Amino acid sequence: MAFALPNPLPSSLLLLLLMMACSTSAQTYRNHSLGSSLTAQDDDSSWASPNGHFSFGFRRIENGGYLLAIWFSQIPKLTIVWSANGDDLAPRGSKVELTTDGQFELKDPEGKKIWGADVALSGVAYAAMLDSGNLVLATQNSEYLWESFKFPTDTILPTNTIDLGGKLVARYSETNYSNGRFQFSLQSDGSFVLQTIDFPLDSANSVYWSSETGQSGFQVVFNQSGSIYVAAKDGSILKTISPITKSTQDFYQRAILEYDGVFRHYAYPKRLNISSMSNPPDWTPSSNFIPINICRAITQDTGGGACGFNSYCKLGDDQRPRCICPEGYASIDPDDERKGCKANFIQQSCNESLPGKDHFYIQPMLNINWPRSDYEHFQGQTEDWCGNACLGDCFCALAIYGSNGVCWKKKFPLSNGRLDPREGAKALIKIRKDDSTFKPSGADSKKKDRSTLILVGSVLLGSSVFFNLLFLLAAFLAVFRFDYFKPKVVQRYPVMPGMNLRSFTYEELKKATNGFKEELGHGAFAIVYKGAVESDRGKPVAVKKLNNIVTQGDLEFKAEVSAIGRTNHKNLVQLLGFSNEGQHRLIVYEFMSRGSLANFLFGGSRPNWYQRIQIALGTARGLLYLHEECSTQIIHCDIKPQNILLDDSLTPRISDFGLAKLLKTDQTRTMTGIRGTKGYVAPEWFRNMPVTVKVDVYSFGILLLEIICCRKSFEADAQNEDQMILADWVYDCYKERKLDLSLGNDEEAMSDMKRVERYVMIAIWCIQEDPSLRPTMKKVIQMMEGTVEVPVPPNPSSFNRSI
């Protein structure tokens, strides 16, 4: 029996199918054969996935070394999903190579191994960066011998799984990719848990969240649909960690254990024309944070809790924890708030010869507690009794008083600190009445010892005036010789005594700025230039060349510069040094890469509402520090968007603070072009009233309105005359309950109208013409954070106006 053969395919169709097959294969792999390498350098050095969504290669971390990493290629904000050497950044010139014998290693320029893939089997033929974000080492038959998905750092991607014993380790901070303080793991008993780490060791400390799936748990799965769950061995879902919220076809997705200890699931739209957007969106987190409140979740027997020792954790409006120092305490490291806090005073001593309880007072703080730091408790007592009991106990750092009459004494170091209205307790913090310190040793005691030695010698030789004089002369020469010829520390670059401020020569700064060539900005009293300090590895700096300086000597100028240099806060631009030669007065600051808030707010497309909220809060915190927390109170006198600079992460940094005393009198009263209206200048400037910190509060109120509405305080070309002055217009909108009119088409802000109204009310309080009605910056922050209710503000122009 004969069978009829099917008609052969047309040659054109056959060719098309072959081309499609080749195309599909090319989109899946882009192989890098044995001998391929990448070098850490300034230019892009990476391998891209076929669809271009991911890249593998080197990324420079701030001004430090290079991180060998995988990141999203199509998203403007650098988003790293895997890294090889977070604990040991590679120097420039380092190389990662797939060697001819199949090893995949990262080595520094001298050939020292920094990292290597643990390939258990031989036979590696190529490396490939896959469209899933997985980097693989494979055989000629495409069998994976090693893959980055099997060794995740802090992030998992769709199609990735974590098996029994697998884990994620949070990075140390947002920009520090070394191992941090938290880990995510699938335990051998089948439970998925979040744990603290015995930092700086990598051993687990205590569990603060558990899926409680028991021995049935087999894998944590992040499936192609975008759902994350704990699966049993048969693939059934035991517990959903983050349900499907957005399609992976339309959104990039990632889930990360962040440096604050919270596991978050993020999405980012794929089909955006980012090249045409001046301010593209950021990643959007799902509402399924684990845990929901990290501040309350961690209560451990050892360790500092969600934040460091002696600090407390507070959940912000963005659901991110902030680590705050209580009254009387300051951050150990302003750049790392999780290191904890230290007392700004000498703590009470149990030595009876030193000052006791009369030198201390109790500062109450509501709804704050440090669980498990207690060593004594009493019942049925009053708040006054509880506070006095702590004052009279040299071991007591503070007491917690509950409404039920329970008093708990707490000892140092304080741990597991948290602020939460549900605590329902009051912290009674013991603080020294003044910051005077005692000097049991030091320079004064040494001088006293030498004087005593001379006096004793004089008494012993008192029988002879000649010998007495001879001894005094010999003692004087000995002391002079000791002080004059004792070794001096020679510093390569001179610094201001007691501070880390470098004294530059004028020629150094002229060279650093290439002859003051690249201007960053200018004002009535100074021009700012961009520069690079060769002696500090080319670190970029901003050099402010001051004009109109008050005629004064070197000592006065250095005294004012040192007052600025003693400030240390993450929301202030850091002063690095100065130059004071002849008529030249220059101040050197750290360089802020994102420019001024003015450019950010008014430079084109409307910035993200959440970013604006954080900028407003950060600016307020910087002003609070200047007004109340630094050693010398500083009134800025010129708060405006041009003087708020932004760093890489859009953290606001107040600049030009403390310069008022360096300028001529007429320059300290900076005027806008609209004299007598609600510009940035407080009305008291024009009324011969005392100038206090409340002038900065007024300026901040205007700035806050600009941030809310994303428009300048005065616009001559406004649609109608009523809208020309922003403060007047917004108050009218508020009074008529039509605040949405002041927001333009800002959908993000309009979806958060409760906060918009609260912030507008705060701004109206700040711009009251009567300075006594304006709140302090501390009160402003409390109202912005929602810990203090905002009362209905009066008309800001109700004060007797004379201009």
TrEMBL record:
Which N-terminal stretch is annotated as signal sequence?
1-26
> Is-annotated flag, keyword Nucleotidyltransferase?
no
Spell out where the chain crosses the membrane.
453-480
Q: Which reaction does it catalyse?
A: L-seryl-[protein] + ATP = O-phospho-L-seryl-[protein] + ADP + H(+); L-threonyl-[protein] + ATP = O-phospho-L-threonyl-[protein] + ADP + H(+)
Q: Record's superkingdom?
A: Eukaryota
Residues where ATP binds: 545
Protein name, per record: Receptor-like serine/threonine-protein kinase
- Its source organism is Carya illinoinensis
